[in-house]
Structures are given as structure tokens and as C-alpha cells.
Amino acid sequence: MTVTIFIPKDAAALALGAEKVAKAFAREIEARGLDARIVRNGSRGMFWLEPLVEVRTERGRVAYGPVKPGDVESLFDAGLLDGGGHELCLGLTKEIPFLRQQTRLTFARCGVTDPLSLDDYRHYQGLKGLEKAVGMAPADIVKQVTDSGLRGRGGAGFPTGIKWKTVMDAAGPQKYIVCNADEGDSATFADRMIMEGDPFVLIEGMAIAAVATGATKGYVYIRSEYPHAIATMTAAVKIAQAAGILGPSVMGSAHAFDMEIRSGAGAYVCGEETSLLNSLEGKRGIVRAKPPLPALQGFLGRPTVVNNVISLASVPIIMDRGAEFYRDFGMGRSRGTIPIQIAGNVKHGGLFETAFGLSLGEIVDHIGGGTATGRPVKAVQVGGPLGAYFPRELFNTPFDYESFATKEGLIGHAGIAVFDDSADMLKQARFAMEFCAIESCGKCTPCRIGSTRGVETADKIRQGIEPEKNRALLADLCNTMKFGSLCALGGFTPYPVMSAMTHFPEDFEPAPMVEAAE
Amino acid sequence: MNVRVTSGAYAERALPIIQELKGLEGPMLPILHAIQAEFGYVPEEVKPVIASELNLSRAEVHGVVTFYHEFRDHPAGRHVLKLCRAEACQSMGSDRIADRARQLLGIDFHQTTLDGAVTLEPVYCLGLCACAPAAMLDDEVYGRVDEHCLSDMVAEARR
């Protein structure tokens, strides 16, 4: 019987040499005349083990990693095709603690299947949600999504069902589903992983949204920094069109829905939904004032659902398993699961999908295993470049929307960047301002000018020029940006700056004079 | 003011690209991406052609082109090396890698080496944050970039 070997094609696996490993495997299989085939799957999300090679055996899938091209010969010698022992053998994949502790709902298939095999997708429960949805009244679909408690996973946390209801109730000859795949936050890669590892789940989620709201056209706006995701999604849309999942009759129903993949052009601010809509229309990615809500006047002024990738990709399982099934995970007003992305200076970096409610400390210390450098954790930035820096004293904060808000932070897209004790928090605060200055769309003065003034003020603090006065000025500037900016770029840049200044005041003291004298 | 007569050669190459895509909803970005794929940058001469085909002013086209970091107003080197400069990569020493890259290439970010081999660019996140620091040389991605890996990339690009 043909043995199946899985070698990821996820961009992070490729960045760690998966392509060379796959070639070495192909050569070795041919040279030894073995009856084996290679499937290029997505990633399981354990990046310290990538390239992670798996072999399907009678006992289940056996994992080996991290595999280098030079290991391939010895792996075959050790009987890899039967799951044989080797120093790189990690045992059964599903028993690896990092995976075993997760609740994979949205990412159930990611890393398991061939991303572009519709047969695989169906075999692992794919399309069941859409099959149910096409037989339901739109209002019932919207109710089920609302009851599930799903909130926007892009960062704002707005209830997805309520957004859908607004679009469903809006009158208009043409409505749209726009997927925000402009995942620009550092330390986040969940959107990329799902688009590269399980693209059909996003297509299915968008089709369900279309059936629910009466939209007939969809767009996925993917950032241009993700060429692999763009390629996989483009191929998947073609396959879905050929299979009748997309097109004039979705799964043989009376609903029409088709979609296109669009590429961004390197503007962080286009992750903001109104800026994204302007960009999609072919304009400068300038933020729009709200109201009007995009749900009523979105793409080309028509009713539009704008949802994040993970929000949409979580819908199929909600439709398949029911609102209660999903709602039963989580805590407080944060229901369901969240794919936490543990990144930066961390030993076990990767994607960990779990119910809301783990403490930040559990995530960083236990799941992430502390820093990669082995030094103590100094700070973690949660929620990307607009998220706050958390010191160890706040590690008991539970991972949910409300708890983070009470600590002057946000979970955002659930990315966590870990820093060891060599981090200089004044430098990080300065970078937050610098990044805002580079990426500001220019519409709001506090964001456009304030960010540049912020960089200058941070530099003055560094140089010891009236430090006390300039710290007060920086805080005042943050206050102006927070309340005087239309969108989260100018409005949330104060989070990293103020958290750095509040929790790490020692880094905002001028450099000791001794050093200057030397 | 920069008044130039549209060079026939540019228009000739650009027109079929624009006409193929102009029927899309919001055709501007797809057109600009296709133009950049064709020419390696967005030539000044093409802007009036796009403007006329999409019934926009030249200023509007110019405004869009210059808003996005991705679009170039002149050709890049034969290879483009992008180094991630965002927070997750910073936590793993990307600033040191960036300094080393400047040193090895003798240029700063947004510049091209004199021999036209390499353009160095910053990028704010490649989504490879759990294997930082990350880089991209043309279409190839690299994780856990250290000085050794960087030297290899630079050597390959220089060849």
C-alpha cells in the first residue's frame, strides 16, 4: 500500500527549509524505489519543530522534526515509512502536548489535509455547515451566528451576528462580503496559516455569510506580503467554482455567490475596514468616518459585511455543530475559541487554539516555554503594534476581550510577541510612534503629526533633555492621539507607548552620565 | 510641473493590460500590480494612460500610486531583499541583522547597490513571527535569519 508522507508547504515551514526537505524526500523515495507519496499539507503550527514531517501509519500519524535535508537518508534507514524510531521522532502527532492541549475548532483541518484537496476537505467534515445553511432561512443563519457569541477576531471584537443582521436587513440590489485578510500585526499569522493550510474553510464561511445576508459577490483582500496565501486562495477559489460551491447556484441552491482574491499593496492602515474598502475600490487607503457604517454603505457605497479571516473561518463549524456547541467554550462575553499566536523571543512559538480564559502567564511560560534565548521574560506585547506591553506583574490577566481592556490593553488579533530582559522599552515605545508615522494614512492630524512628534520626544528623553517634562509631554501627546484619531492606528498607538512608560519607568530614565563621559 | 508627452512605447505595452482589467469592480490596484509586474515599476508615462482609461485625473492616479509602499517609481535592483523590522523580529535581534545587511551591501534601506544587484527594503511583518527574524529574497522566505544566513543571501543575490 502506498504510504503517505506529509511535508508542510506553509510559508513558515518553507522559511525553515521545507522545500529542500521535500526534494530530498522525493529523491530518496525514487532512489530506493519505495511506494510512497508526498502530500504538501499546511502547518500544525509548532514552528520550533518545522519542517515537521509526518507519516501515516496504522497507529496514526507519526511526526518527525525539525527535519533537515541531511536527515532524510537516516530517517528512511530507521524505517520512517512504518513510523520507526529516530532521534527526530516525536511519536504520534496528536499526542504532542502542544497539540493535545488545544481545542481546534477553526483550525481542525489545518496541517492535517492537503489544502487544495476538496476530497480531503469533505472527508474531514468540510462543507457540512454550508450544506445546512443553504436549506435555512437567512434570519435563522444570522440567529445561529449571533447565539454562538462569535465576535470579530480581527481585533475589534464586534459581534459578528449583529453585523450580518444589519446587512441582511439593508436594502440594496447588490451586497458584498469582504474578507479582511490584511493581517499586518506583528506576531500574528493565524490568517496566513488558515489561508495556506485550509483555504476552503474561508470560502465556505464567506458563502454562508452570503447566503445569510443576500450578498452575491465576495472579495478577499490579502496583503501583498503573503504571496503564498494569495496563490493558495486563488487556486482554491478556482476549484470551488469548478465544483459548484461558488457560482450562480451555490451547492445547487437558489443562492448565487462568487468571489475574487485581491492583493493589497503594503499599507498597514488598510487593515482598518473603511480604509480597506477604499483600497479595494482603487483609492488611497484613507480611513472613512463612521457613520455611515460599512454594513449599510460599504464597498462602492453598497451594504457590505467586512469580517476578518478567522471570524469567517469559524462560521462553518458553528453552522455544522450549532451555536451552543461553540458558545460553551470560553468565558464571560468572550465565547468560543481563539487561535493564540505565540511569537518573538519564545521557545515554543506557534499557533495555539483554545477557549478564551487562559492566563497570559500560562500562555507565555507553560505553553510557550519561556524565551528562546533562555533569559527571563521582560515584557510581552499583546495585539500587534497597537497593543500594550504587559510586564510579568500582569501575567495573571485572563485572555479575553474584557479582561485585557480593564488592564489598558487589547487582545487584538491574539498575537503575543515575547521579549527577554535585554529589551529596551523606551526603544519599543519610540518604535510604536515611528511605525505610526510610517503607516499613518494622513487623515487625522494627531496621528499624522503626533506620531512624528512622539518619535522626537522619545529621542529627547533618551538624550536626557528635560526628561521629566518630555515624559509628561509624551503622555499628553498620547492622550491627544487616543481621543483625536478616527481609527485604531492613531487611537491605539498610545497603548504600547503608555504601557511601556507605565510598567517600565526605569527604561525612560536618561542614560547614566558615566556612560556619556566615557 | 512635470509635463511629459506620453511615450508611445509605454502606452502600447500598458494599454492592453489596463483594458483587460478595467472591467473589474475597483480595477485600480489590480491594474497597478499588473503594470508593476510588466515594467518592474509604475512608470510616470503610464499614469495618464490609466487616468484616461479609468476616467480619472492624473492627480488621482498619482495619489494612489504614491500612497502604497509597494509601488515603485523606478526599477528595483535585480534582487530585492526585504528584512522584517517589526516587533516580533526585533525581539530576536532583527536590528542587528539590519545593521549587518547595511554593512554588507554598503547601502541603507530603500537603496540599491551600485552594481544594480540588490535593493534593500524594510517590511513590516511577513507573518513568520514564530521563526523570527524573518526575511524575503525575491519570492523566497527565510526564518531564524542569522549573520551566516544573511551572508549567504547577499552572496546569492550578488552572483
Task: Please characterize this protein's 3D structure.
The complex is a heterodimer of chains A (518) and B (159). Chain A is of the alpha/beta class and 518 residues long. Chain A folds into 4 domains: 3-100, Glutaredoxin, CATH 3.40.30; 118-327, Rossmann fold, CATH 3.40.50; 333-418, Ubiquitin-like (UB roll) (Roll); 425-508, Up-down Bundle (de novo design (two linked rop proteins)). Chain A is 41% helix and 15% strand. In chain A, the strands form 4 sheets. In chain A, strands 2-1-3-4-5 form a 5-stranded mixed beta sheet, covered by helices on one side. A 5-stranded mixed beta sheet of chain A has the order 13-12-16-14-15. The longest helix of chain A is centred in the C-terminal third of the chain and has 18 residues, at 467-484. The mean pLDDT of chain A is 96. By secondary structure, chain B is an alpha+beta fold. Chain B has 2 domains: 8-67, no CATH class; 79-158, Glutaredoxin. Chain B has 7 helices and 5 strands. Chain B has helices spanning 8-21, 28-39, 47-54, 58-67, 87-90, 94-105, 147-158, and strands at residues 79-84, 111-112, 118-123, 135-137, 140-142. In chain B, helix 1 packs across helix 2 (28-39) and helix 3 (47-54) packs across helix 4. The longest helix of chain B is centred in the N-terminal third of the chain and has 14 residues, at 8-21. Chain B is elongated and about 50 Å long. Chains A and B meet through helix 1, strand 8, strand 12, strand 16 and helix 17 of A and helix 2, helix 4, helix 5 and strand 5 of B.
Task: State the secondary-structure class of chain B.
Answer: alpha+beta
Radius of gyration of chain B: 18 Å
Which percent band covers the strand fraction of chain B?
5-15%
Biggest interface pair, counts: A-B, 65 and 41 residues
Low-confidence stretches of chain B: 1-5
Tell me briefly what this model is:
The complex is a heterodimer of chains A (518) and B (159). Chain A has 518 residues and is an alpha/beta fold.
